[in-house]
């Protein structure tokens, strides 16, 4: 008679034999193996014997049933397979024989809650990301595979060690400056070193409009420095970039001409 | 400038205690929200230390600009934002020290998002997956990037946004307060515009309520308090799997006298 061993992390919580009746796994107290975790659906999956073979079937669960890290709808199980439901594993032993003993009564199991937040320390971070990349590569047919799986040739399941995580975007983009080509401002050139650059006549503005500025806006436009570059966005006025009014925050390229509130500003990267 | 502030925190429908904390310091336009973690280690102690430590440090610095700065200072940030970052370093230290002294608190930690509006700028600093949203002219943008495993996977293109929503790894954070002596704090600045609404929230809101629903509620509520009440109610109605906390603040920078209206009209004859 086949046997399922419910485990959380490395701890064995319960062993359940699969008899003639299907074993239902879910969050509901009416299930045969209750896992009290929000990631688990009320009736999540069932395991049963069909034509002498052990089968697992997902019962339209929200978060899915995984066998050996593959999401499955229905699949045949063999000894050593590991069914993942939420954060609990069910290890399959198809060869187990109770020696003709009566089917042990399936007891209700209440697994501990595992919805607590956990934090990875800096060492574990890279490990987890690499593992996730490797898994994503095999788990998601049709999706663009993680570069790790695509480049390694062998299935990524052979080991996370083969995986490489795509490099994170550079922490700091190149520094740029605005050169005043037209209009009256308090400087001729502004180094865009800050996260936020405000253009206007306000005291708080970085690029300050001077001269006859009665009708100039306090805050005409803004430039935001992000990890991947600089973006210009409107404030009280809609700036144009190379003559075209911007629709939304617009990424700036070397040599772009920004016009707003009577100013002409040339955007240039510093090398 | 007028600010309409609303806030609410709720245990939710599943948890047995509330580990979230928040604090509003109106005279500084300072808003802080923290989501504690560590169950038996008393996450609520960590989140309380975070909001208290940050508000105290910012208040002291407002009174005395010579208050020392903790942690690295960044040249691309204003003094206000650098002060928020410094305050988060102080909070991290306080949580670690408290856990060190009392074994019952070992393992506690917290996320934090702190934002202050000053000199026409929205200054924000954060660690973890508590978020700051900005609603402007009906459109909502997430200002902070979650320091969670799934958010990082999305940023690196390993998984899609939809997959992130279904991920089993949603509760895995890459950064939090109270974990290590050195914590990397993210900071950003945005221009404040008339009519902007800021929303600070814990993940108990964002896991239960979609961004579209959040934006619709913020845009359609008369007051920030009503918006806060409705958001928390909806998170609970949708399951309330976690503690849920929101702080909403709507900013009105222009007065509405006839002179101001005429002035704006003169300033913008061609717009709108």
Computed structural class of chain A: mainly beta
- Largest protein-protein interface: A-B, 47 and 48 residues
Write the H/E string of chain B, N to C: EEEHHEEEEHHEEEHHHEH
Walk across the major sheet of chain B and give the strand order: 1-11-10-6-7
The fraction of residues assigned to DSSP E strands of chain B is 25-35%
Question: Which stretches of chain B are poorly predicted, pLDDT < 50 over at least 5 residues?
Answer: none
Bin the helical content of chain A. under 10%
Number of helices of chain A: 2
What radius of gyration of chain B results from the CA coordinates?
A: 19 Å
Number of strands of chain B: 11
Topology:
The complex is a heterodimer of chains A (271) and B (272).
Chain A: E1 3-8, E2 11-17, E3 23-26, E4 33-34, E5 45-50, E6 53-58, E7 65-67, E8 70-72, E9 74-76, E10 82-85, E11 88-93, E12 118-119, H1 122-139, H2 147-152, E13 176-182, E14 189-191, E15 196-200, E16 207-208, E17 221-226, E18 229-234, E19 240-241, E20 244-245, E21 250-251, E22 257-260, E23 263-269
Parallel strand pairs in A: 3-4, 15-16
Antiparallel strand pairs in A: 1-2, 1-11, 3-5, 5-6, 6-9, 7-8, 7-10, 10-11, 13-14, 13-23, 15-17, 17-18, 18-21, 19-20, 19-22, 22-23
Chain B: E1 2-10, E2 20-25, E3 30-37, H1 43-63, H2 79-101, E4 109-118, E5 121-127, E6 131-136, E7 139-142, H3 149-155, H4 161-166, E8 172-173, E9 186-191, E10 197-201, H5 203-206, H6 211-220, H7 224-237, E11 244-252, H8 258-267
Antiparallel strand pairs in B: 1-11, 2-3, 3-4, 4-5, 5-9, 6-7, 6-10, 10-11
Helix pairs in contact in B: 1-2, 6-7
């Amino acid at each position: 008679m086949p046997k399922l061993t419910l485990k959380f992390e490395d701890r064995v919580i319960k062993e359940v034999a699969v008899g003639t009746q299907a074993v239902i796994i879910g969050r509901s107290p009416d299930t045969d193996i209750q896992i009290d975790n929000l990631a688990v659906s009320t009736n999540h999956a069932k395991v049963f014997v069909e034509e002498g073979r052990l089968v697992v079937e997902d019962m339209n669960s929200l978060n899915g049933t995984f066998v050996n890290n593959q999401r499955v709808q229905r699949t045949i199980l063999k000894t050593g397979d590991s069914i993942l439901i939420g954060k609990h594993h069910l290890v399959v032993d198809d060869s187990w024989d109770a020696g003709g003993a009566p089917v042990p009564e399936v007891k209700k199991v209440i697994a501990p809650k595992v919805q607590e937040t956990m934090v990875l320390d800096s060492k574990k971070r890279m490990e987890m990301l690499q593992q996730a990349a490797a898994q994503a590569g095999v788990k998601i047919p049709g999706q663009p595979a993680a570069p790790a799986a695509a480049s390694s040739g062998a299935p990524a399941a052979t080991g996370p060690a083969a995986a490489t995580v795509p490099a994170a975007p550079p922490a700091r983009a190149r520094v740029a400056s605005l050169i005043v080509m037209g209009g009256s401002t308090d400087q001729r050139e502004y180094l865009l070193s800050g996260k936020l650059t405000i253009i206007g006549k306000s005291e708080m503005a970085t690029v300050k409009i001077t001269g006859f500025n009665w009708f100039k806006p306090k805050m005409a436009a803004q430039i935001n420095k992000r990890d991947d570059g600089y973006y210009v966005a409107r404030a009280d006025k809609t700036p144009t970039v190379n003559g075209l009014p911007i629709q939304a925050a617009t990424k700036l390229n070397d040599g772009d001409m920004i016009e707003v509130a009577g100013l002409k500003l040339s955007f240039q990267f510093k090398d | 400038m007028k600010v309409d502030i609303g806030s609410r925190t709720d245990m939710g429908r599943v948890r047995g205690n509330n580990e979230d904390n928040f604090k509003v310091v109106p005279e500084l336009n300072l808003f802080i929200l923290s989501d504690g973690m560590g169950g038996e280690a008393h996450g609520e102690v960590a989140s309380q230390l975070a909001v208290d430590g940050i508000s105290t440090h910012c208040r002291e610095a407002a009174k005395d600009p010579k208050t020392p700065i903790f942690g690295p200072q960044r040249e691309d940030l204003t003094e206000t934002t650098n002060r928020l970052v410094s305050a988060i370093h102080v909070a991290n230290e306080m949580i670690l020290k408290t856990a060190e002294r009392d074994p019952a608190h070992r393992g506690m930690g917290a996320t934090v998002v702190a934002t202050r509006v000053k000199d026409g700028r929205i200054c924000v600093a954060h660690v973890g997956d508590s978020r700051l949203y900005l609603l402007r002219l009906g459109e909502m943008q997430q200002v902070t990037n979650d320091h969670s495993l799934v958010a990082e996977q999305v940023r690196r293109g390993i998984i899609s946004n939809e997959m992130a929503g279904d991920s089993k790894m949603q509760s895995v954070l890459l950064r939090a307060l109270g974990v290590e002596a050195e914590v990397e704090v993210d900071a950003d600045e945005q221009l404040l515009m008339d009519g902007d609404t800021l929303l600070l929230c814990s993940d108990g809101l964002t896991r239960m309520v979609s961004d579209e629903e959040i934006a619709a509620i913020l845009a359609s509520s008369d007051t920030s308090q009503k918006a806060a009440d409705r958001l928390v109610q909806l998170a609970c109605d949708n399951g309330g799997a976690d503690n849920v906390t929101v702080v909403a603040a709507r900013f009105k920078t222009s007065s509405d006298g006839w002179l101001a209206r005429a002035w704006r009209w003169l300033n913008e004859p061609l717009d709108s």
